[in-house]
Amino acid sequence: MIPLLPQVAVVVSLLTVLGLITIVGLDRLWEFRNRALDRFVAVFPYLVLLGGVLALNSVLRDIGPTLSWVVGWQITDTIFAYEGYFVAWLQGYSHPLADIYFSYTYIYGYIFLLVFPVVAYFVLSDSRPVREITLAYTLNYTIGVICYMLFIAYGPRNVMPDVVDQILYLHWPESHLLTQEFNANVNVFPSLHTSLAVTVALLAFRTRKKYLLWVPVSSILAISVVISTMYLGIHWGIDVIFGILLAMVSVGGAIWLTSPKRKEGYLGAIGKRLRAPIDRPVSWLVDWVREYQTKRTGDPRMDP
Amino acid sequence: MDRATADSPKITRRQLLGGAAAASLGASSGCVQRVRSIVNRSSPETVSLTVTAPPADSDRRATLIARHLVSNLEDAGVSATLNILPETELLREVLLNRNFELFVARLPAVADPNEYYGLLHSSFAGESGWQNPYGFANIATEENIDRQRRTAGESRVKAVTALTESIVKNQPFTTIGYPEEIRAIRTDRFTGWEAHGIRQPLSYLGLERAEAVTDDEELPLKLAAIDARVSQNLNPLAVEFRQTEPFTDLLYDPLLRRIEDELVPWLARSWEFEEGDDNATLTVSLRPGQLWHDGVSLTASDVAFTFDFLSDTSLGELSQPVPAPLFRAWSVLVSDTQAVDDETVRLTVETESEEVAMQTLVTPIFPEHIWSEKTGVASVSGIQGSSNVTEALVWENDDPVGSGPLEIADVSADDEVTFVPFEQHFLYRGGDSLTEIPDRFTSGVPFDLLELRMVPGNESAVELVNQDDLDGTATSVDPREEVLQAIAEEPAVSMLVEHSPSPYHIGFNTAAEPFSNPYFRRLLARLVDKQYVVDDIFGGHGTPAAHPLDGTVWGPEEFRFDGTDPVVPFLGTDGEVDIDRAQEAFREYGFQFDEDGTLRIL
After folding, report:
1. Cα B372 vs. chain centroid, distance in angstroms?
2. How far is CA B391 from the centre of its chain?
3. Strand (E) or helix (H) holding B225
4. How far apart are CA A25 and CA A36, in angstroms?
5. Which residues of B are less than 8 Å from A173 in CB distance?
6. Cβ contacts of B470 on chain A, cutoff 8 Å
7. Rg of the Cα trace of chain B?
């Protein structure tokens, strides 16, 4: 059992429910119930893709560090030479309250930031935002894990412990047991915390017409996550800059891929062929559920 | 080392050569001569030194020492960069590839002066491992190493004093200080932690069940390991995976065990030392009926095999011998082996000193039926490696067969290692042949299994002990205030502090410029404030040292660290370099600084 995982699940679930009530709204959720099955069918292949990349990620994370010592470049001193003591300067402003705020943001805030928009976009009548966000996450993780293979770098807390402390683990040791399950300490370039947080904020801006409140909430959370990665001594400023670049590339890529124009092109054809084997069992399953509902209620619910 | 050509000369060589070509057409030969003597002279260059150290996650003290050194070097005008490598990579670069300039690490304990034979003798300069990784060659040092090896008593003390003098004066490495090892332990299930310390993993066998726990209750001993290398590799010869007090000690038994500075008969029941003309013979009798963990009998032939194998792990299969990277100071003494019968082995040792010869018996014994299969050239999925690496040196050995009091039950890399008592071990068979072995080892194992759990950091290790998930930390925690406070806050958890004989040191690659110059090494040593390191970085938990025998019975009075280093005192105060004094000291030995105050070397 991974420590803290139950707490994270509870906190993130509560925050997500709160977000659904305030940001998404109950009327939108009520209206969604009729479209739920269709939406599930449409989006399922994207979730499978993201799930696959995450699974591959966890395998690579186990063998990755060893492999990257064979193929990778060590860039710790290059980063340090360019950046110097920026993170040390930032930690110079540390305060016990900020320690707590950024530690919780780094763990709870970050996971909520990633989970909530997927749920919120899932219930929208337009399926594009949810396809965009799953593809953007997929791109982030794919490019991120390739970078981790190619670049070996230790974060500031490991290089200059005299001026940069590991605030997170020092005051909250359990969090180290959690993060080590997902991260090796040589995987700092680029900051995936930053790239994913910024991805969410960028997409929030794209969906401002639907969820206006999510724009300031996600922006504040994303900025906090970005600062926390450096404040806690885990990442260099340069990791963060490249994390932001990765976010822009991923969001741009996801927008391009989900554009209606792609549907006619050869990419659309490839997409159709790829999702066909997934769609078949899913539609069979959905038909079965519909049949069951019809039998139970005697009221075949027609899609609007 | 990076060398940047000095930017100050006004005319570059190319311009000079071009000019010389044009001028030589009409100029006198005297002018050409002058051009030649300018062109052929190299100008001093600024140097940049690379200090290699492990990251704070694995050895925070070493990282901080390296930071202290780099910042003092920079202050003194010597440009330097810090290269952070994980411990396995660091040891691989230093001990196996000899690809380093300066490194900061723990030095294996120098329990006997003869360990210097392995550490510093130039005959080992071509070998890998802890055999002279510094590439050091010094005639006076070697003469004294040889002298202490042949002598005993008063004359050996004299030889060791002379040897220490040559080491502190030549500084092939700079000894910084002994750290204290600090562990968090719970006493509600096991007691007796303090009685003999638990620095050596063998000590776990000497713990006792707490009164609240009955004898027949199933009871595991669960410990946190902050260093995950034990779960990645269990080969006693894989030098980059072995820490100073390795857990493989529990799995592989030696003929004699060093227990609190006493040599205790272990696999051996008795021995006889017989002096010859210029060597001697050690006849060792083994305890009868001993077994390996896989049930095969342990015989004299395994012992003979071990010494042959340690001096050449290829056993003559390869054109060049491939010696083991560890235990060489001792295995090299054994020039011939002969299994007389199943329980008697005769070793020819190249020393007339019984005191020295006995120490060879402390090396672990390997099962012949397993390791004789590992003598070929190491290969990765069919691709053969270089011809100087045998399979024996790189094998993971994740299902080890030893003869030690514990055997492996389960290994899960980066996660957990589980040991269980080896029921057939002679310790548990009773009998009166065990009289020389301390009682605590013969009165039964207090636990049913020993579980080492890999934990990412000090803080989380202490947290798991505090939460009652684990009984203690198997490795030392960082002596930082927050960690020690966390231990003190939990009443059921106590802090066990032990002196470590394995000091931190800075190793120089003395085979490479500019470290081949002993004066340069001494100047670098003078940029480390050992007292500051112990007070500040070790948090007072340690002792500064001038050399690895400082503070032991072998350490001569005149070379004792006494508030300040006897030979390489710090060039500053309270960790801060006195820049003028430092640069003056460098100039005294002919080093130059450019107008920015940066050191240049010809």
Report:
1. 26
2. 22
3. strand B220-225
4. 16
5. 457, 459-460, 462-463, 486
6. none
7. 27
Residues of A with CB below 8 A from B2's CB? none
Residue of B63, B93, B489 for testing the chain A interface, max A β-carbons within 10 Å: B63
Give this complex's ipTM.
Answer: 0.88
Cβ-Cβ contacts under 8 Å, B463 against chain A: 173-174
Token digits of residue B281: 């013979």
Contacts of residue B86, defined as CB under 8 A and 6 or more positions apart, other chains included, come to A186, B54, B55, B58
Contact check, Cβ <8 Å, A77/B82: yes
Query: Does B51 lie at the interface with A, CB-CB under 8 angstroms?
Result: no
The CA distance from B278 to B352, in Å, is 7
Q: What is the mean pLDDT of each run of 10 residues along chain B (602 residues)?
A: 44 44 49 65 76 93 96 93 91 89 93 89 84 91 91 90 95 96 93 87 90 87 92 91 87 91 90 88 93 95 94 87 86 91 93 87 94 86 68 91 94 92 89 81 90 91 92 91 91 92 94 91 96 95 95 92 94 94 92 86 72
The whole-model pTM stands at 0.89
Strand B572-573 and strand B220-225: the pairing is: unpaired
Contact A169 B83 (CB under 8 A): no
Of B84, B414, B462, the CB nearest to A173: B462
Please indicate whether, in this complex, the C-beta atoms of B463 and A180 are within 8 angstroms of each other. no
Write the pLDDT tens digit of every residue in A151-192: 999 999 999 999 998 888 888 888 888 888 788 888 898 999
Got the DSSP string for B397-434?
-SS----SSEEEEEEETTTEEEEEE-TTSGGGS--GGG
Q: By the CB < 8 Å criterion, does A158 face chain B?
A: yes
Per-residue CA distances from B186 to A152, B192, B209, B212, B227 (Å): 38, 11, 12, 13, 20
How many Å lie between the alpha carbon of B520 and the closest alpha carbon of chain A?
25
In the predicted structure, residue A53 carries a pLDDT above the cut 50:
yes
- CB of B57 within 8 Å of a chain A CB? The answer is yes
Distance from C-alpha of B230 to C-alpha of B406, rounded to nearest angstrom: 15
What pLDDT, on the 0 to 100 scale, is given for residue B25?
Answer: 44
* pLDDT tens digits, A204-255: 999 999 999 999 999 999 999 999 999 999 999 999 999 999 999 999 999 9
Q: Does A59 touch chain B (CB under 8 A)?
A: no
| SS3 category, B282 | strand
Place of tokens 């140097």: B47
Closest-CA residue to A25 (of A197, A304, A212): A212
- Nearest in space to B306 (alpha carbons), one of B245, B236, B241: B236
| B457: chain A residues, CB-CB within 8 Å | 166, 169, 173, 176
Query: Which residues of chain A lie closer than 8 angstroms to B82, CB-CB?
Result: 77, 80, 159
Verify cis geometry, omega within 30 degrees of 0, for the bond prior to B514: yes
